[in-house]
Amino acid sequence: MRTTTAALLGLAVLALTACSNGSPAATPGENESPASSTPPEASVDASCGELTELAGTLTELNANFDPNTLLDSARAIDAGLESLDPPPAVAAEWAAVASIFGSAVTAADAAGDDRAAQEEALAGVLDTQATPESVAHLDTIAAAIGEQCGGEAGAAAGGANETCALVTDDELAALFGTAVPAPSGSDLGEGFAECEWEAAGTTVLVSVLPAGEFTDDYLNGAHEPVSALEQGTALPDFVGIGRVGTTGGTVAQITGESAYLFAVMTPDESVDTALAAAESLAVAASARLG
Fold first, then answer.
1. Domain termination residue (choose one: 122, 157, 192)
2. In terms of domains, do 180 and 272 share one?
3. Is 39 in the same domain as 95?
4. Contact at 8 Å (CB) between 163 and 193?
């Protein structure tokens, strides 16, 4: 049950692995809002300390998930979302997430004094109400707080923004056409970050992780060198941080102390098509990585 809840919060296998051994690793498994009024900007500025604390709770939950503290984190997030005014740019996302966490905490409170029962009730609501879109709202809210208040609130979003910038809309148009979807990025801490685009059966996932983690944990299966890249590797799977799917392809490039993974899945589920697209993205990005 808790594994499902973690996935709905955008933590998936990565978070559970990080808690048990300190580093994310690939794990087999198939890959796969109400609006609110805009508050006065002055009220947001006046509460930046509390907003920054809320952003820290959101990003900490995303980077260092602990099932034993999920209930406490959910209560803290619910309280913050209810008592604070959102940055105007994310009022709708704020309201959507507040509704989910409010329902989850209410269910936990109604479960009596037994903590296990409270956790079960909380997870049940998250399992049924959380969606990929609402999960993405967590990072969107934290990033907006960072832009509004500056300082540490924006730091966690920085790695995700940089990861999303590794590929351009022009490059993604080869896969998505003119309607390139908005990216969903996460900075997972300690050198791990990812950014994902998904629409109409096509998925692109860009992941960044320490080079040592990649060579130790991701090269145990089939792989081959990519001649167009100095330190490139092709993997006949859709591979990300804590994610492996068999209907795609991934090209990885090591630059400096980091490994950059470009994973693609297409509607026809062709590994060759996915690998060709992944290589094109990786080659273009490598020029920007230097």
1. 157
2. yes
3. yes
4. yes
**38-64 mean pLDDT:** 57
Backbone angles phi, psi at 232, to 5 degrees: -100, 150
Query: 71-125 pLDDT, tens per residue?
Result: 888 888 899 889 888 888 889 989 998 999 999 999 999 999 999 999 899 888 8
SS (H, E, C) 49-71: HHHHHHHHHHHHHHHCCCCCCHH
Q: Are residues 148 and 205 in the same domain?
A: no
Give which of 261, 270, 274 is closest to 211, Cα–Cα.
261
CA–CA separation, 214 and 232 (whole Å): 12
**Which residue, of 117, 133, 157, is where some domain finishes?**
157
Domain that holds residue 257: 167-289
Is the pTM higher than 0.85? The answer reads no
**Domains in the chain: how many in total?**
2
**In a 10 Å sphere around its CB, with 0-12 CB exposed, 13-18 middle and 19+ buried, how is residue 121 labelled?**
buried
d(CA 171, CA 176): 9
Do 91 and 137 reside in the same domain of the chain?
yes
Q: Is 239 helix (H, G, I), strand (E, B) or coil?
A: strand
Count of other CB atoms within 10 angstroms of residue 240:
25
